[in-house]
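ZP: hey, is the protoporphyrin IX containing FE complex queued? I don't see it on the tracker
AM: it wasn't, my bad. submitting now with these inputs:
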Amino acid sequence: MGCAPFPGVIPAYRQDMRDPDAPRLPSSPGFWRSPLRGPWLTSVLGLVLLAGITVLFVTGLVSYAAYNPGLSPVNDKTPDKGILGFYLFAWPTRPHWLYRLNQGVHVTLGITLTPVLLAKLWSVVPRLFALPPARSLAHALERISLVLLVGGGLFEFVTGVLNIQLDYVFPGSFYPLHFYGAWVFFAAFVAHALLKMPTALRNLRHLREERNDLVSPRPAEPTVSRRGALWFVGGGSLLLFVTTVGQNFDGPLRRTALLAPHGGGDPGSGPNGFQINKTAAYAGIDPAETGEEAWRLVITGPAGTVRLSRAQLAQLPLHSSALPIACVEGWSTSDQWWRGVRLRDLAALVGYDAGDPPDLFVESLQRHGAFRSAALRANQVADPRSLLALYVNGEELSPDHGHPARIIVPAAPGVLNTKWVARMTFGDL
Ligand code: HEM
């Protein structure tokens, strides 16, 4: 019933329940009693969403590009995308915080916009029930686009929120669902925005509502103004923002991320005391395989295969890089000081010129979870900050951060910074 969140409308509906002449069906304009609905409120919410959802769509597409999906099937969770992958490009390594910013914005903005999306849907709900369903072919097409718009929007927000809450209850893999859902939603969104923009801009100039199918012919007593309603929605967005954005910062701010399952937990203290996604136990890492005696890194290239212990790796020229961990779920850490062997120097051990290394295929000891292997493009291997890290913040990597050794590459999504590395195969993919 279109009465929440404003109490003034509730008595009006109760009164209607007792009034035998009151409209009973939501298809009747008189059924909707809220005095707040109208083109002005809908237009303001619509224009906020126009900007916000465009940013969501672009950052989402960029998130997919960051996987370098064209490089190898292991990086691509949406292989059947066809022409929808037209925009893909070789993911850069500069600036090193690029993916951290992109995914932080995508997820934090998505959550922050949720009250605006719900308020917008509330403001137009009478239209969804209006009869006849189609007055003309154009009207029918517009209504079909509305179904794709509303359905697509709810689908994207729901799958997105479920994904970051680690509730993988959707009917299939998140990646193709959210990716294709995004295109359907955004296409309907663009059509809707183009159709409605002139009206929306005109409505903004007129706070006093002209007659319109959103304006209730039998408005209940107002208990809040339209601006008050916007403050209410804005307050909801602000609350979600301040209880989410903290997942992008270390220290006390992270504890404010009350809604983020991975974002706000306590990563412990000390050099290895920063956020992780999967623990060694969750990934099925057997400590017997990571000990100094047992573990050997296997590196393969045109010059053959090299097996190195951790002690031997630590004897090679070591370099340091200050790089963040940026998770696809939207949380991230600030820059950590990693120390290890440059990937390009490892390529040189198996027959490549360190100045012109090839692509790299990395396999982990990990037994559970996604991304047990990943591919890195030559530009990522060539970057002097890209390391096979053995230490972090001056200390050996902890098991949960990928001991004996892990990949760390600037600007790459967390899932491509493979932990518990077992094999590295250099060669163009
Ligand atoms: C509350 C809202 C949203 C949340 C929490 C959310 C969350 C996410 C997350 C976590 C990812 C990365 C998934 C991964 O790589 O593992 C993602 C990817 C993406 N999102 Fe969203 N999203 C939201 C809304 C949207 C909307 C409204 C759109 C479109 C307009 C969108 C478009 C995309 C696209 C295209 C991708 C790339 C999918 C892929 O990598 O296969 N998202 N989103």
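AM: back. DSSP finds ten helices and ten strands in the chain.
ZP: great, adding it to the tracker
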